[in-house]
Specification:
Two copies of one chain form a homodimer. Chain A has about 325 residues and is an alpha/beta fold. In chain A, about 35% of the residues lie in helices and about 25% in strands. In chain A, about 55% of the residues are buried. Chains A and B meet through strand 1, strand 3, strand 4, strand 5 and strand 6 of A and strand 1, strand 3, strand 4, strand 5 and strand 6 of B.
Chain lengths: ~325, ~325
C-alpha cells in the first residue's frame, strides 16, 4: 500500500497549538456559514464487551481533502491494562477519492480540536479583563482547556473542582508545574469565577446558576449524549449570549437542548460559535455568556488535513 | 503504527473462492437469523467532483472482529487515467476496539462478496438440472457471476446480453478462455435461459417478464439505489419464491421494492436469502424463483475478518 501511515510522534511534532487554533477557528467559521458537509455519524454497539464504535466524517466545501474518523470506546479495557479508546483518522482526496493518509493519532486530534474549540470561544466571549478561570472536572480535557486558554490570555488563578480530591490535587500539581496558579475549590467557589469551563461526564448540573456572577462566561464541553447535562437551564435563562457549535446537535444532545426543553431558552436563542470568532464580540460588562460545545466532525476533517499538509507538504 | 496494512497481492493469495463462498454463506445465514449488526451507512457527496463516499460497517454477533469499509466513487477519474473507485477496509477487534489491520483491497472484497452471494443464491434456487445461464451486463460482476456459479455447478452454455457489442464480444472471449461456452444473445433469447443473472446499472427493466420461462431462476444484483431497476414487477408476480438479502434494503432500493410499489408483490412475500442457503430448497420444477440482492455490510465484515485470519493466523 502506498498510503502513508502517520503515527503519534510525527503528528505531535507538527500539530503545534498555533496551527490547531487557526485551523479550528477557520473551520468553525466555515461551519457557521454553512460551508461544511457533516453527515450523521455511524454507530455500532458491542454490549457484551462494554464497547462502541463511532464513525464520523466531515468536509469543508472546497477543501482538497475530507476525513473519516473511526473511534472506539471499550470501557473494560483499562482493567486489562489497555486504553479505552482506539481508532484512526483516514484522510481522503475530495477530488479523486484516493486515500491520502492514515493518521494513527491515538485520539489526540479529537482532544486538541476540543481543547482549541473551548479555548477559542471562552476567550472570545469572556470579558477582556477576565483572568480567573474555574474548571469542573479533572480529566484530560480539564488540563487541556486550562492550558490552551492560557495560550490565548493571561490567567491570574485557576480554581479546580472535582469529586475526587486526589485527582484535583494531581491536576493542580500539573498546572502549577506549567507555571499556573492553581488550587482546589468548592463547586460554589468555582461557580463564582470570571470564566468557567465544565469538562465532566455529568448527567445533572455541576454548578448552581445562582452562584454564577454577572459578567461571567461559562463554556460546557462535556455533553455529548442526550442524557448528559452539565449546565443548569437557569444559567441559560440568565445568559445574554448563548453560543452553540452546532445548532441541531446542541438541541439534540447538548446542555442547550436541556435548557430549551426546560423552557429556560427558546429554540432560536443561540448563535453559532463560528459567528462569534471572526471579529470582537460586543458583550456588556455585566452580561452572562454561555457556550455549549458538542463537537463538530468538519473540525476534525480540517485539523487532520492541516496536520497532513505539514507532514506531507 | 503497529497496525498491519495488507495489500491486494496478499489478499488475493489467501482469498480463494472456497473461503469466500463458505464465509459469505455463513454470514448470510447469520444475517437471516438476526445475528448481525448493520448500522445505516454514512454518506458524503462531492457534487463538483462527481464523487461520493460511502462508509459501511457490520458485525456478526460473537465474531472477534468487526469491519468498517470506506469506499469512494469519483466518476470523472477514468478520464484522468485513475480508477473511479478507491477505499479500504478497516478491521477492528470487537473485544477491545483496537485496529487489527487495514485491507487495501482495491474493492476486490466487495466484488467477491457480491459474486459469491449471487452464485450461492442462484445455485440454491435454480433447478438442480439447470445448466444454461444468461447474464445481462458486461462489466466486472457479469464476469464474476458467471465464473463463480461455474464453481458451483456445470454450465452448458452462457448467453451474454449487453448494449455494446464490442463489450459483449470481449466478455464472451474472456469466458471462452476459461473453458465456458459463451455467445452473444438478444434480450429475448437471454430471458429464456434456465438461469438469469442481471448485473447492470439499469433504471428500467432489462428483460420482459413474458419471455422468462416456467422453471427459470432470476437473480438481480444491480439495484443499489432507489432509482435503479433491473427486474420487471410482473416477474415478481409470477415468482413462487422471492429471496431478498435484506428485507428493509430491498424494499427501499431493490427490485423487490419496485415490485411492491407496483403491487406485483406484497411487502411480506419475500424470504431471507440466508434461510434458503442452509439446506436444499423445495422448489416445484415449473416454478419461477427470483432473488434480489442489494449488498449486506455484515458479509463484508465477515469476509474481511476471514481474509485477515488467513494472513495473520
Amino acid at each position: 500500500m502506498n498510503v502513508p501511515v502517520l503515527g503519534p510522534a510525527a503528528i505531535e511534532r507538527v500539530a503545534v497549538p498555533r496551527l490547531i487554533l487557526d485551523t479550528v477557528r477557520d473551520a468553525s467559521i466555515a461551519h457557521a456559514e454553512g460551508r461544511t458537509t457533516v453527515p450523521p455519524p455511524l454507530h455500532l454497539e458491542f454490549p457484551g464487551a462494554e464497547g462502541d464504535c463511532h464513525v464520523k466524517a466531515g468536509w469543508i466545501a472546497g477543501a482538497p481533502e475530507f476525513a473519516v474518523k473511526i473511534a472506539t470506546g471499550f470501557y473494560a479495557n483499562p482493567g486489562r491494562g489497555l486504553p479505552a479508546n482506539h481508532g484512526l483518522v483516514c484522510v481522503l482526496s475530495a477530488r479523486t477519492g484516493e486515500v491520502r493518509a492514515l493518521l494513527d493519532d491515538r485520539g489526540m486530534l479529537t482532544a486538541w480540536r476540543t481543547a482549541a474549540a473551548g479555548a477559542l470561544i471562552t476567550h472570545a466571549l469572556a470579558r477582556p479583563d477576565a483572568a480567573e478561570l474555574a474548571v469542573f472536572g479533572t480529566g484530560q480535557q480539564a488540563l487541556l482547556q486550562v492550558t490552551w486558554l492560557a495560550e490565548l490570555r493571561p490567567l491570574s488563578a485557576v480554581l479546580v473542582h472535582g469529586r475526587r480530591p486526589e485527582r484535583v490535587a494531581a491536576l493542580c500539581g500539573e498546572l502549577r508545574s506549567r507555571g499556573l496558579r492553581a488550587r482546589p475549590a468548592t463547586a460554589r467557589e468555582a461557580a463564582g469565577a470570571d470564566m468557567i469551563v465544565t469538562t465532566t461526564p455529568a448527567t445533572s448540573p455541576v454548578l448552581d446558576a445562582a452562584h454564577v456572577r454577572d459578567g461571567a462566561h461559562v463554556t460546557g464541553i462535556g455533553a455529548d449524549m442526550p442524557h448528559k447535562n452539565e449546565l443548569p437551564p437557569e444559567l441559560f435563562a440568565r445568559a445574554r449570549i448563548i453560543a452553540t457549535d452546532d445548532h441541531a446537535q446542541c438541541l439534540d444532545h447538548g446542555d442547550f437542548g436541556h435548557a430549551v426543553r426546560a423552557q429556560s431558552a427558546t429554540r432560536r436563542s443561540d448563535t453559532a460559535v463560528g459567528h462569534l470568532l471572526g471579529s470582537p464580540v460586543h458583550r456588556p460588562d455585566g452580561a452572562i455568556t454561555v457556550a455549549d460545545l458538542t463537537g463538530v466532525g468538519a473540525l476534525d476533517a480540517a485539523l487532520a488535513s492541516a496536520v497532513l499538509h505539514r507532514l506531507l507538504p
